[in-house]
Write the structure tokens for this entry.
Amino acid sequence: MVILAGGISSRMKLSEGKRTDIPSDLLQQAEERTKGMIGVGAEGRPFLDYLLYNARQAGVTDVTFVIGEHDSVLRNYYGTNDRGNKFHGMEISYAIQRIPAVRNKPLGTADALVQALLVRTDWKGERFVVCNSDNLYSVQALNVLYNSAEQAALIDYDRAGLEFEEQRISQFGIIRHDQEQYILEIVEKPPAGELQNLRDRDGTIRVSMNIFLLQYDMIMPFLLNCPEHPVRGEKELVVAVSAMAKAHPRSVKAIPLHEHVPDLTYKHDIVRVREYLSKHYSALQW
């Protein structure tokens, strides 16, 4: 499993004025840490612990984090070795996503996954799951991906199950697939006004929350050849997956799921996520 945690969390760091509903220590962490390491859980437990807990419940034992080159907080918490750190029955490894000298931010999620696969050449010929570090994917979502017979797949979230406002949905990818649930493309961050035009045949808006089952050798060429987005200036994983789906029709299965996915993108998400974790994860029974 690859967890993408190498971004600079620019949206989290955006100022939202003085907030009195968020503890000052968490506001400081939001400014200084990768989002997954913000201590939103009980007794300051980082958000990533809950994602790893669900992954372990789904049978995951091998995890590679993609992190920034100066991220000492995550490494000091999960283990400082490049490979083989032990954490509740899992082995934690790291891949580094560096910021090129001519840029002020990383090259994006496609480049992040390249860095992971370059250090995990032992995965060649194998399938793996890749996901964000700031979303809490369920045990069920992870289970259905790992148990899929497909070479590649993604979770196809029903918009009606996601407890986000409409504007937030337009910041994700919208899935278009054929009648047999194989994806045609993922429309990344469509304008809010275009969402209605992207409804499925049954009227459903199908949302990608950036969790994929991929095959090493199949995806690698599309990651390496992924173009930079003309506006956002990043190489995006959804673009590489869409290109692979077009080059290899019926290669990426969309697996439907109706549930919420807690998302830690902005400072105001801290309040929502803390409430969700308090309600649903009173204790972690590793």
User: Anything to note?
Assistant: Residues 2-280 form a domain with the Spore Coat Polysaccharide Biosynthesis Protein SpsA; Chain A fold (CATH 3.90.550.10). The chain has one domain: 2-280. The chain has a mean pLDDT of 93. The first strand starts at residue 2 and ends at 5.
